[in-house]
Amino acid sequence: MRSLLSVGASLLLPATLIAQDFTITDGANATYNQRFAGTTAGGVSSCNIGGGCDSDNTWQATWCYSVTGTNVGKPFDDMEPHGAYIQTPLPPNGFVQDFLNTDGLGLFDANWLDTIAETGGGSGSTLTSMMTVTNTSASQLDIKLYYFADVDVHTSFGNDYTGPGSNPTRFVVLDNETPCGGCIEVSAPGATHYQVDTFGSATGPNDNINAGNDLPDTGLPFGSPSSPLDFTGAFQFDFSLAPGASGSATIEFKVNMSGVAGSNAVVGAGVGGLIPTVTSTTVPRVGRELVLDVTGGTGPVALLFAISPAPTQIPGFGIMADPVVATAQVAMAGGVGSLTLPVGCSSGLFGLPLATQGLEIDATSPVSIGGIGYSASAILVSTVGD
Fold this sequence. Notes:
By secondary structure, this protein is mainly β.
């Protein structure tokens, strides 16, 4: 890692200086650029996380705070004079910023630690950002910490929507831009409040932060694949600190991309009389939906699921021999049915081979078990990618 500062050095800046830009990296594809924006957009910063297939951007992202009762929120990179501002690169992939006597208030010190880690091919990476505040006053300090993120997946601004797994402490942000795919998740364990809104909204999270308000716990789900919007979101953490006590909040910002496209492939052959087929016209991708289409069946079709890149069938019976991990039933209407499976937003799903086989009772079938005739489809293997 080569920081914009000398590796391994600490730099004490004059109290009137704004926090400075820096870059940290891990491996070939994980990069985090912090670019502080001064007074624009409430003073929040700009940064970039990613690399590889296509850079994933957060146009603005930063930690902010509000001392309870002041009705004012400020970013930690604001222009107010601190008692001291210290930068410390942490090779190979970390960076620390210390704000002593933050904003000259005589209330608290702040320690901001960022680390970046490469998590896979393409531009898979995880930024971990932890903010710690320490009460340096003689009285109890009630303080709100906010993490604001204007997430713009890939290079576009307005194609965003939230996907499966989004909740008050986790934003899963997707983009219908091609060909890179992938998704971004921003997690905030222990957050007390959240807000999601469109960029530029007059009552968006940056406005509530600037006013020192509690975030209203609104905005999810956000947009859709057919009606994407421009995402902004924020989390809030609340602390009541006795003199000398500290409190910490942590954000994980994951760029889940592998640079490898998902795929569907048919393995084996169907058996029976009225043999059903299982196909999919959707590409299995993290954060998206996999739609399984079933045709040819006359009654309900049971779907058997296994995790296997090369599933086999029991000789003479045609049923999938691999361990079944889940089942589902598809109702048929006019010989057609479907099942939609949400695929989570996690780099751990890349390369997952989901094997699916359809099975139905069929009195016309020449194969049977215990005198009950059945028909079984060939096996569809859906391998998860971008």
